[in-house]
Design a protein that fits this description.
The chain folds into two domains: 100 residues, Enolase-like, N-terminal domain (Enolase-like, domain 1), CATH 3.30.390; 276 residues, TIM Barrel, CATH 3.20.20. The chain is 40% helix and 15% strand. The chain contains 15 helices and 13 strands. The chain starts with a helix and ends with a strand. The relative contact order is 0.14. It binds magnesium ion. The site of magnesium ion has 5 residues, from loops. This is Mandelate racemase/muconate lactonizing enzyme C-terminal domain-containing protein.
């Protein structure tokens, strides 16, 4: 009786598989070529293409980095041509093996692999006629929150600089930029706080005196006074503070109840970060310089921060970021992905955010690039009211407007 049931079950389970169950049971497609191109945005947005013999092209993006093109075309192309693009997990490991000892754990090798991984997911979704989020296990939310990086100083959006020419680091400039972002619908706005105060100081020691701390606090106070409860405020310290200064700054900012304080310390030392988090009453975020689940392991296991900021086209790609989120979920840490990319990187990050419960918001870093939305062939804006509705079309669910890409393509 039992044997009968077991053999029936086995027959059913394997009925749909061919003789090579190691390969994905997808359409018999083959990768025919890999390439890259650069869009000249506020960063050199590096688009990765994976061509297939089925006329489907997967579009991905790698974090801007020298050497990505050479690694993809000289090393990864010969490894992947002829492979089935829907074998994403196996091909990810194959790419890591092929670059073993040459950056497959971190750095530009991992960045190149990430860019290809995004394109493989896009190709897979298009070949299987499914959106990427569905292939990852389905959506837990219909839309993802996007936070506005308002930068600071010279890089601040034009509307905030009006009448501020010489004083873009003054608190009033920050307040105006915050108001503009809130009016565009963003619920979280972020500013760089590692900025000049106008005083001549030695920044290399990472020690800052009380007058410097006071300048940072006045910036946050001005933003808070302008937007009140209309949006949450986050600040980015870009690794530029010593533990003692970071502690004094975090304490000075405690009354403002910030959404998070990003990268208060240099990125390498998890012990120092954990110690800071224990000593101050602040939500701490880090992670844009970490690679893969192994790179995030100590931050997660030591509970050294509250929020993790993997960069999808850098840290290993879509599936790797989901794995990081799943590890973090066991420690009640949340994902706030770093993103300085084009709409391709942004869409890939949105698909991850749609599929993991422990997600807060992803970054939008291109408010000063007026043609960012024009890169997409669609009727409506991709980011609306500080949110992205997760697209239902196959793959990443977006199509680039190749005429606009061409206009901004970098040689
Ligand atoms: Mg940052």
């Amino acid at each position: 009786m039992y044997e009968d049931f077991a053999s029936k079950l086995a027959a059913t389970m394997w009925a749909d598989f061919d003789e090579t169950p190691r390969r994905a049971d997808g359409p018999p497609a083959e990768i025919t070529d890999l390439n890259t191109m650069v869009i000249d945005g506020n960063f050199p947005w590096t688009i990765v293409t994976v061509e297939t013999d089925k006329g489907v092209t997967g579009i991905g993006e790698a974090y801007p980095s020298p050497g990505v093109h050479e690694i993809i075309t000289d090393y990864l192309r010969p490894v992947l041509v002829g492979e089935n693009p829907t074998d994403v997990e196996r091909l990810y490991n194959l790419m890591r093996e092929s670059l073993s000892g040459r950056g497959s754990q971190e750095g530009v090798g991992t960045i190149a692999i990430s860019g290809v991984e995004l394109a493989l997911w896009d190709a897979t979704g298009k070949l299987l006629d499914q959106p990427v989020y569905q292939l990852l296990g389905g959506k837990v939310r219909e839309e993802v929150a996007v936070y506005a990086d308002c930068h600071a100083g010279e890089a601040m959006v034009e509307s905030a600089k009006e009448g501020q020419e010489e004083e873009t680091y003054e608190p009033e400039a920050y307040a105006k930029a915050a108001r503009a972002a809130v009016e565009d619908g963003f619920d979280i706005v972020k500013f760089d706080l590692d900025v000049p105060s106008g005083r001549e100081i030695d920044t290399l020691s990472r020690h800052f005196d009380p007058a410097e701390i006071d300048h940072k606090e006045r910036v946050v106070a001005a933003v808070m006074e302008e937007i009140g409860d209309d949006a949450e405020i986050a600040v980015d310290l870009h690794w530029n503070f010593s533990p003692e200064t970071a502690e004094r700054l975090c304490r000075a900012l405690e009354p403002y109840d910030l959404a998070w304080i990003e990268d208060p310390l240099p990125p390498e030392n998890t012990d120092a970060m954990r110690e800071l988090k224990r000593r101050v009453n602040a939500t701490i975020l880090t992670g844009e310089n970490r690679y893969g689940r192994h790179g995030f392991r100590d931050l997660i296991e030591d509970q050294a921060v509250d929020f993790l900021a993997p960069d999808v086209p850098k840290t290993g790609g879509i599936a790797e970021t989901k794995k990081i989120a799943d590890m973090a979920e066991a420690y009640y840490q949340a994902l706030v992905p770093h993103n300085i990319g084009s709409p391709v990187a942004t869409a890939a990050t949105a698909h991850v955010g749609a599929t993991v419960p422990n997600f807060v918001a992803l970054e939008y870093h291109a408010r000063e690039v007026p043609w960012w939305e024009d890169l997409l062939a669609r009727e409506t804006d991709f980011i609306q009211n500080g949110r992205i509705q997760i697209p239902d079309s196959p793959g990443l669910g977006i199509e680039l407007d190749w005429d606009v890409v061409e206009q901004h393509r970098k040689e």
